[in-house]
Structure formats: structure tokens, C-alpha cells
Write a structure and sequence with these properties.
The structure holds 2 protein chains of 2 kinds.
Chain A (H helix, E strand, L loop, with lengths): L2 H26 L14 H10 L5 E5 L3 H7 L3 H8 L23 E5 L5 H14 L7 E6 L6 H12 L4 E7 L2 E2 L2 E2 H4 L7 H4 L5 E5 L3 H18 L3 E6 L17 H8 L3 H11 L5 H24 L24 H7 L3
Parallel strand pairs in A: 1-2, 1-3, 3-4, 4-8, 7-8
Antiparallel strand pairs in A: 5-6
Chain B lengths: L1 E4 H15 L3 E5 L15 H5 L4 E3 L4 H13 L3 E6 L9 H8 L2 H4 L9 E6 L14 H4 L6 E3 L4 H13 L4 E6 L6 E4 L13 E4 L4 E5 L3 H14 L4 E5 L2 E3 L4 H10 L2 E8 L4 H13 L8 E5 L8 H7 L3 H13 L1
Classes of the chains: A alpha/beta, B alpha/beta.
The complex binds thiamine diphosphate.
Chain lengths: 337, 326
């Protein structure tokens, strides 16, 4: 990586962090509704993987997707607008926090049903193999908790039986909501589950973006060369609650503190300075730049309008299809009653 | 009687039944340490211990499937699905096992099982987390489907469900948890499963509702009263078995009906109830029965659009006026 790329990676992580902190504030103010699952603490994973993902590599993840959206290249403005449910959001305000995607960027979404996207990932890879896109790998992200649902096991097995080029990545942040891995999973290392499907697997650390980058790059190349699936377990930690309003009775403050000392942004910042790639002053300027980008995203999102009433019935199908029942109020309105 | 929220009434029913009967236990995601994602089982884990308040992995088919197996041995599990949207993951166990085993094996198996699930939209949770798919579960003979609209009914119906030897899907609505009402203190207060209930008497128009649409219908009835119209409000409480008696009795007096549900209109609860009205009381029909329901879209995240799609109190009010003028 040259200096510019190194600093871009830093900026990306800081934007994710600041944007999510802002989102938390906007949530408290009632500007964002529904569930808001923050990625804070896990930024090195999305940034590291995305820095080595090739344009032909498809990406799919769960509902904790803001970091992934930004790392995939979605404009922070469109991410923030989606959080506010506005028409300029990446899903036109219909998806919200949990459902961000941009197919042009080969990012196939955040998905809110735990594990449901895992078999989809096998299908994405099948699409590439079937159509002769030999160079493509599908990267499928999921949490530790998701590895206990049937979807995971069916998806992994299929990918091995059909020898599909999928990089399965468990972001092990050590809790599925309030349930620690040990209380829900029969094996404490998630990677062991791949053994049952004869699939190569490894566990790596996930707080140092350069390490994530290095390891994932190696594994992606291996899949490209040898084909077939591979499972990576990446150890990480979420600093905030599962979503907003989590009482966090299941872990103690000291544990969170310990992990906060390994802050992925702090680690990378130190590396950049120690490696003389950037000075503290330069990075401070990047921090400010990131803050400005987030300020702008907030202003953009606030200025963006709500989707028009008529859009309620758009995109139900691709083909224009009559809507039988528009809801009582709208029917009355359209019939001039 | 004590005034309490729907959440407290449900919690109380569970607590009392667990105190009364050792065989009753709870399992589901985050029911224990967390205290339930909607705080219904807050304090249960400390009091009853992990044997009887069982945190499960995120694995809905295992949650329901193992509850069925445990019920077959004579235990009385209450399996909690964090939301009804996740029931689709457990659909085979709900439909192919819970609803059928008793019949298919000639009555040998008893499944004294309750599945609790939270239904409904209106909280900006997006299309997969906001559904009111209650009607589809009521399609299958062999499963009882119950959904209370008041705190008192929540307590009495849940206790009956737990004491019933049949599998019962008990559907709660998240936006009703905070509603308050008088609830009997009696530990043996039971409401019968499969009985509709008149929640407000009136002679001009029959409004049929259940769950979240009950308070909405009662409010609409207040609005109608302001116009000098007396609406009768009937709460289904149970979608299967479906008790038409009070509805038909009412309709024979009012000759007009509105049916309100939060879910989609096509193939829905209103379709079933109105069809039965035509079958059972055709000669009494003075105006086409109206169905108030959700617009036929997957619910959007945006709050304005979401509310536009959901049925509102005003819709029930207007529909009632229309059947009266029609
Ligand atoms: C099928 C299903 N069951 C339950 C839920 C509710 N739920 C949402 S996130 C979550 C925990 C998932 O934990 P994990 O996979 O470890 O991901 P993390 O939240 O840690 O990123 C649960 C239980 C859901 N969305 N889908």
C-alpha cells in the first residue's frame, strides 16, 4: 500500500466510527427509528477485508452493516440518508439501518434475519461459477450467534459439496445479543464447525486492520487458485450494546474497557506513526476531514425529503403490477370519498 | 383487580403458572439473563433458575422442535419466539409437527405446548421484522391461535393456553405491551380458548377486531358515539377455533359489519370472518361488509410510509360510516 492508500484506509475507519456515533445521537433524538446495531469496535474487519476485496468479489452481510456499506464504497451521504429513511438513502428509505446495499458495488446487502443470507451467499458463488466468472469469490460475513442456526450448516455444507468459491467469515464479537459464545455454541472456536464439512479454516485476530488485510488477502488468493470454500473466524469485539437500548447485563464494564484499549483505530494510528507513514498532525487533519464528511452527511440526510406517498407501491415487483388493496385511507383518498 | 400493563399481565400469567406447575418451563432467545427482549421474563431467571428459564442458541426450529419433544414427555414448555417473523424459520415444526402429531397418531401424542410470539408493525423495523402474519397460522387445523387485545384477556388466555393439552400459538403485539387495564388477581382466572367476546355493546354497526385493532376499534366506537352511532365491538381473541356466535348475533341486529386487522387483507382474517357472515347471515346483510387492513406492500422503514400502510383508528371509523350510509 502506498501512503495515500494507507491514509485512505485510516480515513475510512474514522468515518465509520464518527458516522455511527452521530447515528447514535440521531437515534436518541428520534431521527432514526427501528433497530440500530452499531459496528463500533469492529471497523478493522470491514476496512481490512474491503481493502483486499476485488471488484468482482461479491459481498454480503447481516444487519450490522453500516461499516460494511461504507467500506464497500457507498457514499456516507447515502448511508446517513437511509438511516433517516430518506429518499436519497441507498435503499430509497425503505430499508433502514439493517438493509443497506449497492449492487453496482457488488455489495448484496445487510440482511436482518439471522443467518438467512448464508445460503444466499452460496447462491451468489454458484452464479459466478455457473457463468464462468472464474476469478470471483463471494465473501459472506456473519456473527458468532448465527453459526447456531440451520441456515449456516446448510449453507456451509452445500458450498463444500458444490465446491463453491465462498469465503465464509465469522465476525466473532463474542456475543449474540446477550448470549456469550460458550452459552450457545457446542464448540468454543467457531472455526471448528467448518471441520464437520471438511472445509479448511482458521482463526485470526481482528483488531489490527493490517493483519486482517494480510490474512484475508492470502486466503482470497488461495480460494482463487484452488477453488472451494474456506472459513475464517475473526476475533473482534463490539463496544456498544447489541442495538440501542441494550441494558448490557451480560458482560462487565472491565471486559469492555480491556477491549477498548485495543481500539482498531488507535492501533492503526500508532502503526502509521511508528512506521513513519504519516505524522500525528497529518492524521489529526484526517480526523477533522472525517468529522466534516459526517457533518455533511447529516446535513444531506436531513435535507433529503421523505419518499413520496406514491413510492409506497413502487418496487413491489419489477414489472408494473396492479395493487389490489392500497389500504383503507388511500383507497378512500383515491376514490375521492 | 389490579391495574397493570399488558406486559405485566403476560408476565404474571407465566409466573403464576410456573409457580403452580413444575412442568411449566420457558425456553427461547434471551429469555433468561437478558430478561426477555421485551422484558416479559424479567426476574424469572433469578427466581426460577436456568433449569426452568432456558436461554437457547439462535435456532428457532430447535426452540420449537425441542419444545414439541419435551411436551410429548408430559412437560409443558412455553417456547418464546422473539418475533413472529422468526416463526418462519420454525415453520415445519409449527405446521408439520405441532399441528399434526396428535391427529396423525390417532390421538396418542399430547402436545401441551405454548409458542409465544410477538407480531405487528409500526416500529420502523423494516419489511422482515414488521409482519402481522397471524392469519396464515390460523389456516392449519390442529393448531390453536390466540391473540389478546386487553391485559385481562392476555392473562386469562395465556393461563388457559398453558393449561391446555393442545399446542397453542399465543400472539402478542409489541405496541400493546404498555396498554393498561384492570386484571383479575385470581390465580385461577382463566379465559376460555376459542371464544369471541363483546368488548362494547351497540346496535348500529358491528366492528370485529382482535389484538392491536381492539383498542383502535374501541376508540373508533367512541368517535362514532360522538356522531350518535352505537357500535358493537367484538374481539375475536382466538383465530382458531373461530367463534362466530357473538358476531352473527350482533350482525342480525346491526346488519352491518366492519372487520379490522393489522395484517394484509388478501386471504386474511377479515376475508374469513366476512365470508362466514355471508354464509351464516346472508338474509341480514344491508351493506357489503368492509375490511380494514394493511396496504398490500412489504412494510417500508420510513415512518411516514409505514404509517400510511398500516390500518388506523380513523380507517375503522370511516369504514363504519360507509357501511352505515351504504
Ligand atoms: C432468525 C432470527 N432469530 C432471531 C433474530 C433476532 N436477533 C437479531 S440479531 C441477534 C443476535 C445475532 O448475533 P450474532 O450472529 O453473533 O451477530 P452480532 O449481533 O454479534 O453481530 C438475534 C438473536 C433474528 N433477527 N433472526
Amino acid at each position: 500500500m502506498d501512503k495515500k492508500e494507507s491514509i485512505d484506509l485510516y480515513r475510512e475507519m474514522v468515518i465509520i466510527r464518527r458516522l455511527e456515533e452521530r447515528a447514535a445521537e440521531l437515534y436518541q433524538q428520534g431521527k432514526i427509528g427501528g433497530f440500530l446495531h452499531l459496528y463500533i469496535g469492529q471497523e478493522a474487519v470491514s476496512a481490512g477485508i474491503s481493502s483486499v476485496r476485488q471488484p468482482q468479489d461479491r459481498l454480503i452481510t447481516a444487519y450490522r452493516d453500516h461499516g460494511w456499506a461504507i467500506s464497500a464504497g457507498i457514499d456516507p451521504n447515502a448511508v446517513m440518508a437511509e438511516l433517516l429513511g430518506k429518499v436519497d438513502g441507498c435503499s430509497k428509505g425503505k430499508g433502514g439501518s439493517m438493509h443497506m446495499a449497492d449492487t453496482e458495488l457488488n455489495f448484496w446487502g445487510g440482511h436482518a434475519i439471522v443467518g438467512a443470507h448464508i445460503p444466499l451467499a452460496a447462491g451468489l458463488a454458484l452464479g459466478d461459477v455457473y457463468q464462468g466468472n472464474d476469478d470471483a469469490v463471494t465473501i459472506c460475513m456473519f456473527g458468532d450467534g448465527s453459526t447456531n442456526i440451520g441456515f449456516f450448516h446448510e449453507g456451509l455444507n452445500l458450498s463444500k459439496v458444490w465446491n463453491l468459491p465462498v469465503l465464509w467469515v465469522c465476525e466473532n464479537n463474542q456475543y449474540g445479543m446477550g448470549t456469550a459464545v460458550d452459552r450457545a455454541s457446542a464448540v468454543s472456536e467457531i472455526r471448528q464447525k467448518a471441520e464437520g464439512y471438511g472445509m479448511p479454516n482458521e482463526r485470526i485476530e481482528g483488531m489490527d486492520v493490517m493483519e486482517v488485510r494480510k490474512e484475508v488477502s492470502r486466503v482470497l488468493e488461495k480460494i482463487r487458485k484452488e477453488g472451494g470454500p474456506y472459513l475464517l473466524e475473526i476475533m473482534t469485539y463490539r463496544y456498544r450494546g447489541h442495538s440501542m437500548g441494550d441494558p448490557e447485563r451480560y458482560r462487565d464494564k472491565d471486559e469492555v474497557k480491556k477491549w477498548e484499549e485495543e481500539d482498531p483505530i488507535g492501533i492503526y494510528r500508532k502503526e502509521l506513526i511508528a512506521g513513519k507513514i504519516a505524522t500525528a498532525k497529518e492524521l489529526d487533519a484526517v480526523d477533522e476531514e472525517a468529522m466534516k464528511i459526517v457533518d455533511d452527511a447529516e446535513a444531506f440526510a436531513k435535507a433529503s425529503p421523505n419518499p413520496d406517498k406514491s413510492t409506497l407501491f413502487e418496487d413491489i415487483y419489477v414489472e408494473p403490477t396492479p395493487v389490489e388493496y392500497r389500504g383503507y385511507a388511500l383507497e378512500r383518498e383515491s376514490e375521492g370519498r | 383487580m389490579t391495574r397493570m400493563t399488558m406486559r405485566e399481565a403476560i408476565s404474571k400469567a407465566l409466573w403464576e403458572e410456573m409457580e403452580r406447575d413444575e412442568r411449566v418451563f420457558i425456553q427461547g432467545e434471551e429469555v433468561g439473563l437478558w430478561g426477555g427482549t421485551y422484558a416479559v421474563t424479567k426476574g424469572f431467571y433469578d427466581h426460577f433458575g436456568e433449569k426452568r428459564v432456558r436461554d437457547t442458541p439462535i435456532a428457532e426450529s430447535a426452540i420449537v422442535g425441542s419444545a414439541i419433544g419435551a411436551a410429548m414427555t408430559g412437560l409443558r414448555p412455553v417456547a418464546e419466539l422473539m418475533t413472529i417473523n422468526f416463526a418462519f424459520v420454525a415453520m415445519d415444526h409449527i405446521i408439520n409437527e405441532a399441528a399434526k402429531l396428535h391427529y396423525m397418531f390417532g390421538g396418542q401424542f399430547k402436545l401441551p405446548l405454548v409458542i409465544r410470539a410477538v407480531s405487528g408493525g409500526g416500529r420502523q423495523l423494516g419489511a422482515t421484522h414488521s409482519q402481522t402474519p397471524d392469519a396464515i397460522f390460523a389456516h392449519f387445523p390442529g393448531l390453536k391461535v390466540v391473540s389478546p387485545g386487553t391485559p385481562a384477556d392476555a392473562k386469562g388466555l395465556l393461563k388457559s393456553a398453558i393449561r391446555s393439552d393442545d399446542p397453542v400459538l399465543f400472539i402478542e403485539n409489541a405496541t400493546l405491551y404498555q396498554t393498561k387495564g384492570e386484571v383479575p388477581d385470581d390465580e385461577d382466572y382463566l379465559e376460555p380458548l376459542g371464544k369471541s367476546k363483546v368488548q362494547r355493546e351497540g346496535d348500529d354497526v358491528t366492528i370485529v377486531a382482535y389484538s392491536k385493532m381492539v383498542p383502535a376499534a374501541l376508540k373508533a366506537a367512541d368517535m362514532l358515539a360522538g356522531d350518535g352511532i352505537n357500535a358493537e365491538v367484538i374481539d375475536l381473541r382466538s383465530l382458531r377455533p373461530l367463534d362466530m356466535d357473538p358476531i352473527i348475533a350482533s350482525f342480525k341486529r346491526t346488519n352491518r359489519a366492519v372487520i379490522a386487522e393489522e395484517g394484509w387483507r388478501s386471504y386474511g382474517v377479515g376475508s374469513e370472518v366476512s365470508s362466514r357472515i355471508y354464509e351464516m347471515a346472508f338474509d341480514y346483510v344491508d351493506a357489503p361488509v368492509k375490511r380494514v387492513a394493511q396496504a398490500e406492500v412489504p412494510l417500508p422503514y420510513n415512518a411516514e410510509l409505514e404509517q400510511l400502510a398500516l390500518p388506523q383508528t380513523e380507517d375503522i371509523y370511516h369504514a363504519a360510516k360507509e357501511v352505515l350510509n351504504g
